[in-house]
Task: inverse folding
């Protein structure tokens, strides 16, 4: 329906009655279509003087991509296929994110957390509270949070049964997250979110999309209800460069962290990859000269995970990294490199399990 509406309006300006009559839509259905179009960057532009709608290109889609949309609209795709095409176009246009900071020292400690799912009744707030205590006690410099910070609102009836009392709605979940991260005091929590997963449901073109840039929203709520600990650095993947060392945060839909690194060419490989999303994967490996950390989760095993014959691994990582500078006995290039990388995993267990 979405692509058909785009194609219809692109053939010439149409009134709202034209569109609703052509597709047999009610006013509520038409409003839903307009909302979905806004979410993927193709809003219907209303001209009050002519009482007609048109499609205006935005920064998200190029002229060439609009032509692709026009052609796909004639292919008879079902709703799921259409949503998949639009999401792919949207995600591909999100520019790569990069945050660069400079420290006066070359040895750093950081904590890695992931998949908090604030607002879920399965969220383990004690994991984050303990991580915050650990961070302050051991002089951690910053925290990396690798996505799915909130449970999100999927629009599915069954999800209501998985929400905590403080999790009904994105605003409530964001407030809960901000309160949890307050425990880190002045330590920044550099975070990514996935467009196609729980936090990102508020933005993308399926589930309960409201067109909310959830990363910016969580950052604003962290300022309102905390000390601004949450720092949003990008969707899906983002690079955090510190003194020339590139740390990449990823929250993939499929594959593994190692298969991701296998697909990188030497010139674009980061020094460190921190991977979220999987819940049941946890570990550290040095692969293709990249330090890889699968980040575990702060959410108990859910019915969905159980149905997939899996269990959550609860906990967080404490990492310590020392940066060296060439030339040295380890490298003949005058570039920064990781001289040492130490990890410590702090596990938690399901309630009632010793």
Result:
């Amino acid at each position: 329906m979405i692509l058909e509406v785009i194609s219809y309006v692109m053939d010439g300006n149409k009134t709202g009655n034209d569109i609703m009559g052509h597709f047999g839509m009610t006013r509520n259905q038409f409003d839903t279509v307009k909302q979905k179009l806004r979410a993927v960057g193709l809003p219907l532009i209303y001209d009050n003087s002519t009482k007609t709608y048109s499609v205006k290109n935005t920064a998200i889609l190029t002229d060439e991509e609009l032509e692709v949309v026009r052609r796909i609209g004639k292919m008879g795709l079902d709703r799921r296929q259409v949503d998949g095409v639009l999401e792919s176009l949207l995600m591909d246009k999100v520019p790569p994110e990069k945050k660069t900071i400079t420290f006066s020292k070359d040895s750093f400690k950081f904590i890695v957390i992931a998949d908090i799912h604030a607002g879920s009744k399965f969220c383990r707030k004690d994991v984050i509270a303990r991580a915050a205590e650990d961070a302050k006690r051991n002089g951690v410099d910053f925290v990396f949070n690798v996505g799915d910070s909130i449970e999100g609102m999927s629009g599915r009836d069954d999800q209501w049964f998985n929400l905590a009392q403080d999790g009904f709605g994105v605003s409530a979940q964001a407030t809960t997250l901000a309160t949890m991260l307050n425990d880190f005091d002045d330590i920044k929590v550099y975070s990514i979110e996935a467009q196609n997963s729980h936090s990102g449901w508020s933005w993308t073109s399926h589930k309960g999309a409201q067109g909310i840039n959830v990363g910016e929203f969580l950052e604003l709520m962290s300022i309102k209800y905390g000390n601004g600990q949450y720092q949003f650095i990008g969707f899906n993947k983002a690079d955090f460069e510190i003194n020339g060392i590139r740390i990449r945060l990823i929250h993939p839909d499929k594959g593994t962290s190692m298969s991701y690194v296998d697909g990188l060419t030497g010139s674009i490989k980061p020094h460190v990859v921190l991977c979220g999303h999987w819940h049941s994967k946890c570990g550290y490996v040095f692969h293709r000269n990249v330090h890889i950390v699968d980040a575990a989760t702060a959410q108990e095993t859910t019915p969905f995970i159980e149905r997939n014959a899996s269990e959550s691994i609860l906990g967080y990582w404490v990492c310590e990294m020392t940066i060296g500078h060439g030339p040295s006995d380890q490298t003949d290039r005058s570039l920064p490199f990781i001289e040492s990388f130490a990890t410590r995993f702090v596990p938690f267990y399901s309630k009632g399990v010793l």
Observations:
- The longest helix spans residues 79-92.
